[in-house]
Amino acid sequence: MHALVIGGTGMLKRVSMWLCEQGFHVSIIGRDEVKLENVKRESAIPENITCLPLDYHNDDDVKLAIKSTIVQNGPITLVVAWVHASAKDMLSFICREVDLSSETYNVFHILGSKASRIPAQKIGGTRCSYHRIILGFILEDTYGRWLTHEEISDGVIKGIESKCDEWIVGRVEPWELRPTW
Hints:
Short-chain dehydrogenase; NAD(P)-bd_dom_sf; Rossmann fold; 5 helices; alpha/beta; two-stranded antiparallel sheet
């Protein structure tokens, strides 16, 4: 089993390490080589992590890295992706690359709370099972606050385990109590 995690050194760091513990070889795309190496060093099974230091805005680098990690670690069966809006087509691009070598795979697309107001769009081909994990907020008394990294990781892990088409971490309603900062 081989997982590709985009954004797996910050708020998804614990997800990357959890996937290792579940028996996956985990390839992590990230811009910060130091953060990538920290995840590997802190993992209980560092030999099951491949660091892919690159900027996912560069299609050629992403394509080369995916091909290389597939050759080294086998077909990708799971993608967990936190991709910024500045690279909105990157996940589709990644799925096209994964389609070339994987029979079937799951994509868990991590999205901000605004995604709860937008209908889901299918990403990936017929081999891809697409799932959305929407990050909401926590309501404490009369005010809302954003999720902590720990709450995000725990919620994403539960979303992956559930295999639901859509999973919400925290809450997205009442919308007017959503934090604004």
